[in-house]
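Sharing a chain and its predicted structure for anyone who wants a worked example. Both blocks are below, sequence first, tokens second.
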Amino acid sequence: MSEFEPKIVAFFCNWCTFTAADLAGTSRMTYPPNLKIIRVMCSGMVDPKYVIKAFLDGADGVLIGGCWPGDCHYINGNLKARRRVAHLTEILSQYGIGKDRFWLRWIAASEGIMLQEVAKEMTEKIKAIGPSPIKNQQEAA
């Protein structure tokens, strides 16, 4: 039996977290290939529908990466993302998707190492808890 490899959809802010991923790549830092990165202009632009669709389409985890509070290029987009994540976390928990599968992290453009650490930590946590319960329900139906 093959080892479970989680599929993680990562929505990264163009100005900070995506740039950190670029920095990690150009610095030859490795992180798990489980992250499928989607670049958005701001973490505040990640609509809850995108997160729900990612889980329905088979993601085992969703990571939203944005600028640190106070550093948002759109003034308060990251704070908007934080409010949305709080509400969405409550909704997702009703469907068996816990906080361990849906993360919001602040990662600045200069924090390639932090991006590497977050990617590794999330991948390992999801490996430990197994596939998404939504994926299991869809397979059973």
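Comments welcome. The longest helix spans residues 112-129.
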